[in-house]
Amino acid sequence: MTRRTVRAVNQSYHVPVQTAASSTASTSAMNPPTTGRSAFQLFLTERYSDLRQQYPLMNVNALVSLAAKEWSELAEPWRLPYEIRAAEDSIQGLAIGREAQTGNPSTSAADIKPEDFTKPFCDFLTANPTIFHTVDHFKSKLNKAGYKELPSRDNWTGKIEAGGKYYTTRNGSAIIAFQVGKAYKPGNGVAMIAGHIDALTARLKPVSQKPNTHGYLQLGVAQYAGALNETWWDRDLSVGGKVIVRDEETGKTTAKLVKLDWPIARIPTLAPHFGVGMMGKNNAETEAVPIIGLDNSDLESTATENASPVAPLGGAGSFASKQPPKLVKLIAGELGIKNYSSILSWELELFDHAPATVGGMDKEFIFAGRIDDKLCSWAALEALLLANSSDDDGIIKLVALFDDEEIGSLLRQGARGNFLPGTIERTVEALATEKTPYGPGVLGQTYAKSFLVSSDVTHAAHPNFPATNLAGHSPRLNVGVALCVDGSGHMTTDSVSTSILNRVAELGGAVNQTHMIRNDSRSGGTVGPMLSSAMGVRASDAGIPQLSMHSIRATTGALDPGLGVKFYKSFLDNFEKVDAEWETQE
């Protein structure tokens, strides 16, 4: 199939697109059939293959979207969006599956174009506001890429083999995905990237219903980490998360995900006319209570003290009876639940409803919520999906994404738990042979040959507060990942790990920056030290810079998601080679 095309740039996200004017249609691919969903899928399949040849490094999601866009705009503008989405999902699964089988071996990190990842990252942030939605999204991508789920309750012996791709989850809020090299032997190392998915938020209290106050319906919420700070005031907030439901017919209990697609809550500031500054210290319990509706029924003339009480939803004492009735009805309606008593519990949280967007005169920024840290976690997983696979790969390539980092990582789905070392140990055990049986010796070898990249966002140089920047150690946006150093051991980077990752960057055509705080500043922490010390593995902290960390809405560079993918992919692809270059093994 021959076609003359030009590469245009979508001005919103810098994603290459093909327009009707930039292509000559000499074949049926650009003159698609006009009836039937099967014909639509046939068109997408053929057009996707052409686009893959044109843009070999573009993200699969972007390629599929381009093909669907051509059909909807040039062939059938009346076609309903859900039909387009269904066909997109179908061909996307086929496309990703095919590429997963080959490992896309011709793609090197040096060839990755960071601008191709801007729109997919923004779309991801907007569509997955809670940690549960994020893990569910990652599972979907892994499934489409040919990864097999390993339930934690199953025996993994006989289910893992060299050349295979797998993932496992915990609590629906932490996930570990890995691929085993085709030439793997027990005792070989693991190239691992670890980060966290959780972000500052406000979670609904177990009893979230509050008394009517001057006609306002309010919602009882609790801080998660440092949420409900001044950046949360006067924001359009919505609700989403996990709902535990018991099926009345089967008696089985399951978890369902929900998110409301419009803002239902707001934390109003007090006007400055009252002489109270809103940017200082405010009481998070009494002054940061979201309003979610109005109820002025107490003003109605028919209201009397003898009015019959309204029966609580779900029955007295039920979980639903302790929540705002209108909210229960909204959540139940979204999930198709008819009996409110079947809602046993939930983990719902507030989130900034505004979508992630690009900004700046040249659209060089991303403005979004939850950048810390869905940015590094997304980039790491994308890197794993794009990681090369060859017959010579002798290591395990792994990405571990945790919950609870913002509150100390102390829960079982956090990095201080046994999720990562337990997964590695079970994997090594499943791959053991009679010649090399599983035991402390093989496991010790594995850890000694392994390396951990702790991927967490770091502070970019701030233009308005230059005194907070340390000269020569303040990374910039849209330049590259920063190796984070801390003299007090809050980060894992040392001379050995710096040398290894600088070599990784060199092989991948990436640029590494350096971040270190001033002596008069307080350092944050990452999952790096706790994981490195628990397993005894070499490690370095390498994160993507951002502004406004722990704000409800932060800033990073439009190229930074792709620069993260570029670096993390180079690490997964090249660590085995770089490790072999060392004369002295430590």
TrEMBL record:
GO terms for cellular component: fungal-type vacuole; nucleus. Belongs to the peptidase M18 family. The lineage of its organism: Eukaryota, Fungi, Dikarya, Ascomycota, Pezizomycotina. CDD domains: HMG-box_SF, M18_DAP. It comes from Coniochaeta pulveracea. This is HMG box domain-containing protein. GO terms for molecular function: DNA binding; metalloaminopeptidase activity; zinc ion binding. One of its GO terms (biological process) is proteolysis. PROSITE patterns: HMG_BOX_2. Residues 33-89 bind DNA. InterPro entries: HMG_box_dom (IPR009071), HMG_box_dom_sf (IPR036910), Peptidase_M18 (IPR001948), Peptidase_M18_dom2 (IPR023358). Keywords: Aminopeptidase, DNA-binding, Hydrolase, Metal-binding, Metalloprotease, Nucleus, Protease, Zinc. It holds the Pfam family HMG_box. Its cofactor is Zn(2+). Residues 33-89 form the HMG box domain.
